[in-house]
Amino acid sequence: MHPRPIPCPATTPANTATAATQARFWNRVARKYAAEPIADMAGYEATLRRVQALLSPGHSVLEIGCGTGGVSVALAEMGATQVRGVDLSPASVDVARRRAKVIGVERQTAFEIGEGSSSTFVEHDWVVADRVLCCDARVEQLLDAVIGAARERIAISVPESRGWRGLLNRPMWAAENMWDLLHDGCRGYVHDVRHIEHRLAAAGFEPRTAGHVDLWHYGVYVREPRS
Questions:
Q1: Residues 21-36 pLDDT 10s
Q2: pTM over 0.85, yes/no
Q3: Which domains, and CATH codes, for the chain?
Q4: Which residues contact 138 (CB under 8 A, 6 or more apart)?
Q5: Burial of 166 (0-12, 13-18, 19+ CB in 10 A)
Protein backbone atom coordinates (compact mmCIF):
# COMPACT_ATOMS: atom_id res chain seq x y z
CA MET A 1 0.00 0.00 0.00
CA HIS A 2 1.34 3.41 -0.98
CA PRO A 3 0.31 6.09 1.53
CA ARG A 4 -1.03 9.06 -0.37
CA PRO A 5 -3.21 11.35 1.76
CA ILE A 6 -6.47 12.33 0.10
CA PRO A 7 -7.73 15.73 1.30
CA CYS A 8 -11.45 16.20 1.79
CA PRO A 9 -13.48 19.37 2.35
CA ALA A 10 -13.32 20.82 5.83
CA THR A 11 -16.12 20.10 8.26
CA THR A 12 -18.56 22.98 8.75
CA PRO A 13 -20.67 23.57 11.87
CA ALA A 14 -23.77 22.26 10.05
CA ASN A 15 -21.89 19.14 8.98
CA THR A 16 -20.64 18.67 12.53
CA ALA A 17 -24.18 18.84 13.88
CA THR A 18 -25.37 16.21 11.39
CA ALA A 19 -22.46 13.94 12.22
CA ALA A 20 -23.10 14.38 15.92
CA THR A 21 -26.73 13.33 15.47
CA GLN A 22 -25.69 10.23 13.53
CA ALA A 23 -23.01 9.32 16.04
CA ARG A 24 -25.43 9.76 18.93
CA PHE A 25 -27.98 7.49 17.27
CA TRP A 26 -25.49 4.71 16.47
CA ASN A 27 -23.87 4.96 19.88
CA ARG A 28 -27.29 4.28 21.33
CA VAL A 29 -28.11 1.24 19.19
CA ALA A 30 -24.71 -0.26 18.24
CA ARG A 31 -24.58 -3.12 20.72
CA LYS A 32 -28.21 -4.07 20.21
CA TYR A 33 -27.77 -3.85 16.43
CA ALA A 34 -24.72 -6.13 16.49
CA ALA A 35 -26.35 -8.68 18.79
CA GLU A 36 -29.45 -9.15 16.64
CA PRO A 37 -29.61 -11.28 13.47
CA ILE A 38 -28.78 -9.34 10.31
CA ALA A 39 -32.05 -7.76 9.20
CA ASP A 40 -31.25 -7.84 5.48
CA MET A 41 -29.20 -10.99 5.10
CA ALA A 42 -29.70 -11.05 1.33
CA GLY A 43 -28.23 -7.56 0.99
CA TYR A 44 -25.32 -8.34 3.32
CA GLU A 45 -24.51 -11.48 1.33
CA ALA A 46 -24.82 -9.58 -1.95
CA THR A 47 -22.08 -7.17 -0.90
CA LEU A 48 -19.78 -9.93 0.30
CA ARG A 49 -20.40 -12.12 -2.75
CA ARG A 50 -19.58 -9.34 -5.21
CA VAL A 51 -16.43 -8.31 -3.37
CA GLN A 52 -15.22 -11.85 -2.78
CA ALA A 53 -15.50 -12.66 -6.50
CA LEU A 54 -12.85 -10.01 -7.24
CA LEU A 55 -10.83 -10.07 -4.01
CA SER A 56 -7.24 -11.17 -4.56
CA PRO A 57 -4.68 -12.26 -1.95
CA GLY A 58 -2.81 -9.23 -0.73
CA HIS A 59 -5.60 -6.74 -1.35
CA SER A 60 -6.12 -3.97 1.15
CA VAL A 61 -9.64 -2.74 1.92
CA LEU A 62 -10.99 0.48 3.37
CA GLU A 63 -14.60 0.41 4.50
CA ILE A 64 -16.06 3.87 5.01
CA GLY A 65 -18.97 3.72 7.42
CA CYS A 66 -18.05 0.27 8.72
CA GLY A 67 -20.60 0.30 11.54
CA THR A 68 -20.10 -2.64 13.88
CA GLY A 69 -17.66 -4.31 11.51
CA GLY A 70 -19.70 -7.14 10.02
CA VAL A 71 -18.56 -6.62 6.42
CA SER A 72 -14.98 -5.65 7.30
CA VAL A 73 -14.43 -8.69 9.51
CA ALA A 74 -15.95 -11.00 6.90
CA LEU A 75 -13.62 -9.61 4.22
CA ALA A 76 -10.63 -10.20 6.49
CA GLU A 77 -11.81 -13.80 6.91
CA MET A 78 -12.03 -14.07 3.11
CA GLY A 79 -8.38 -13.21 2.68
CA ALA A 80 -7.98 -9.44 2.56
CA THR A 81 -4.50 -8.77 3.93
CA GLN A 82 -5.39 -5.47 5.54
CA VAL A 83 -8.85 -4.12 6.34
CA ARG A 84 -9.37 -0.66 7.76
CA GLY A 85 -12.82 0.36 8.97
CA VAL A 86 -13.85 3.92 9.74
CA ASP A 87 -17.06 4.98 11.45
CA LEU A 88 -18.23 8.10 13.26
CA SER A 89 -19.76 6.13 16.16
CA PRO A 90 -17.30 5.27 18.96
CA ALA A 91 -19.65 2.55 20.22
CA SER A 92 -19.80 0.94 16.78
CA VAL A 93 -16.02 1.02 16.45
CA ASP A 94 -15.68 -0.62 19.86
CA VAL A 95 -18.05 -3.41 18.80
CA ALA A 96 -16.13 -3.86 15.53
CA ARG A 97 -12.83 -4.24 17.37
CA ARG A 98 -14.35 -6.79 19.73
CA ARG A 99 -15.87 -8.68 16.80
CA ALA A 100 -12.49 -8.86 15.04
CA LYS A 101 -10.83 -10.18 18.20
CA VAL A 102 -13.47 -12.87 18.73
CA ILE A 103 -13.19 -14.03 15.11
CA GLY A 104 -9.40 -13.94 15.27
CA VAL A 105 -8.63 -11.33 12.61
CA GLU A 106 -7.57 -8.45 14.86
CA ARG A 107 -4.08 -8.41 13.31
CA GLN A 108 -5.53 -7.91 9.83
CA THR A 109 -8.01 -5.23 10.85
CA ALA A 110 -7.94 -1.72 12.24
CA PHE A 111 -11.03 0.22 13.25
CA GLU A 112 -11.05 3.90 14.03
CA ILE A 113 -13.41 6.79 14.62
CA GLY A 114 -13.79 9.16 11.69
CA GLU A 115 -16.25 10.79 9.32
CA GLY A 116 -16.08 9.70 5.70
CA SER A 117 -16.94 12.99 4.05
CA SER A 118 -14.45 15.05 6.04
CA SER A 119 -11.52 12.70 6.63
CA THR A 120 -8.17 12.05 4.97
CA PHE A 121 -7.45 8.51 3.80
CA VAL A 122 -4.52 6.74 2.23
CA GLU A 123 -5.10 4.67 -0.89
CA HIS A 124 -6.33 1.09 -0.60
CA ASP A 125 -6.91 -1.47 -3.33
CA TRP A 126 -10.59 -1.50 -2.42
CA VAL A 127 -13.00 0.99 -0.94
CA VAL A 128 -16.30 -0.40 0.31
CA ALA A 129 -19.23 1.95 0.90
CA ASP A 130 -21.97 -0.41 2.01
CA ARG A 131 -25.19 1.47 2.78
CA VAL A 132 -23.29 4.62 3.72
CA LEU A 133 -23.79 7.01 0.78
CA CYS A 134 -27.47 7.06 1.69
CA CYS A 135 -26.65 8.29 5.20
CA ASP A 136 -25.00 11.56 4.17
CA ALA A 137 -26.46 14.62 2.46
CA ARG A 138 -22.95 15.55 1.32
CA VAL A 139 -22.76 12.85 -1.31
CA GLU A 140 -20.28 14.81 -3.44
CA GLN A 141 -17.77 15.06 -0.60
CA LEU A 142 -18.28 11.44 0.33
CA LEU A 143 -17.77 10.37 -3.29
CA ASP A 144 -14.59 12.46 -3.35
CA ALA A 145 -13.34 10.45 -0.38
CA VAL A 146 -14.40 7.10 -1.85
CA ILE A 147 -12.87 7.75 -5.27
CA GLY A 148 -9.74 9.35 -3.89
CA ALA A 149 -8.96 6.46 -1.58
CA ALA A 150 -9.61 3.66 -4.08
CA ARG A 151 -6.70 2.39 -6.13
CA GLU A 152 -8.56 -0.16 -8.26
CA ARG A 153 -12.00 -1.19 -6.98
CA ILE A 154 -15.06 0.31 -5.35
CA ALA A 155 -18.05 -1.56 -3.96
CA ILE A 156 -21.26 0.33 -3.18
CA SER A 157 -24.80 -0.39 -2.10
CA VAL A 158 -27.39 2.37 -2.30
CA PRO A 159 -31.18 2.65 -2.51
CA GLU A 160 -32.08 2.53 -6.18
CA SER A 161 -33.25 5.88 -7.54
CA ARG A 162 -34.15 4.69 -11.03
CA GLY A 163 -37.27 3.06 -12.44
CA TRP A 164 -39.99 1.58 -10.32
CA ARG A 165 -37.63 1.04 -7.40
CA GLY A 166 -36.93 4.76 -7.31
CA LEU A 167 -40.64 5.52 -7.41
CA LEU A 168 -41.08 3.34 -4.33
CA ASN A 169 -37.92 4.38 -2.51
CA ARG A 170 -38.47 8.13 -2.47
CA PRO A 171 -41.81 8.22 -0.61
CA MET A 172 -40.75 5.34 1.65
CA TRP A 173 -37.58 7.11 2.70
CA ALA A 174 -39.42 10.41 3.10
CA ALA A 175 -41.87 8.74 5.48
CA GLU A 176 -39.07 7.09 7.42
CA ASN A 177 -37.28 10.44 7.69
CA MET A 178 -40.36 11.95 9.32
CA TRP A 179 -40.36 9.14 11.88
CA ASP A 180 -36.63 9.60 12.51
CA LEU A 181 -37.09 13.33 12.94
CA LEU A 182 -39.58 12.70 15.74
CA HIS A 183 -37.51 9.98 17.40
CA ASP A 184 -33.96 11.37 17.14
CA GLY A 185 -33.04 8.97 14.37
CA CYS A 186 -30.78 9.38 11.34
CA ARG A 187 -32.05 10.88 8.12
CA GLY A 188 -31.53 8.86 4.94
CA TYR A 189 -31.16 9.95 1.31
CA VAL A 190 -32.05 8.44 -2.05
CA HIS A 191 -29.24 9.87 -4.14
CA ASP A 192 -29.24 9.74 -7.93
CA VAL A 193 -27.56 6.46 -8.88
CA ARG A 194 -26.94 7.70 -12.41
CA HIS A 195 -24.96 10.60 -11.00
CA ILE A 196 -23.03 8.33 -8.66
CA GLU A 197 -22.07 6.08 -11.55
CA HIS A 198 -21.16 9.12 -13.67
CA ARG A 199 -18.78 10.30 -10.95
CA LEU A 200 -17.21 6.86 -10.75
CA ALA A 201 -16.86 6.61 -14.54
CA ALA A 202 -15.25 10.06 -14.72
CA ALA A 203 -12.55 8.73 -12.39
CA GLY A 204 -12.07 5.60 -14.53
CA PHE A 205 -14.19 3.16 -12.52
CA GLU A 206 -16.42 1.10 -14.79
CA PRO A 207 -19.09 -1.36 -13.58
CA ARG A 208 -17.83 -4.92 -13.36
CA THR A 209 -20.84 -6.42 -11.64
CA ALA A 210 -24.13 -4.86 -10.61
CA GLY A 211 -27.60 -5.92 -9.59
CA HIS A 212 -30.47 -5.47 -7.18
CA VAL A 213 -31.68 -6.97 -3.94
CA ASP A 214 -35.19 -5.73 -3.28
CA LEU A 215 -35.01 -1.92 -3.57
CA TRP A 216 -31.21 -1.67 -3.30
CA HIS A 217 -28.58 -1.30 -6.00
CA TYR A 218 -25.32 -3.23 -5.52
CA GLY A 219 -22.28 -2.76 -7.70
CA VAL A 220 -18.53 -3.21 -8.00
CA TYR A 221 -16.63 -0.71 -10.15
CA VAL A 222 -13.12 -1.39 -11.40
CA ARG A 223 -10.35 0.85 -12.70
CA GLU A 224 -7.39 -0.53 -14.62
CA PRO A 225 -4.19 -0.42 -12.54
CA ARG A 226 -2.17 2.73 -13.05
CA SER A 227 1.44 2.44 -14.14
A1: 788 877 887 788 778 8
A2: yes
A3: 13-222 (3.40.50.150)
A4: 9, 15, 117
A5: middle
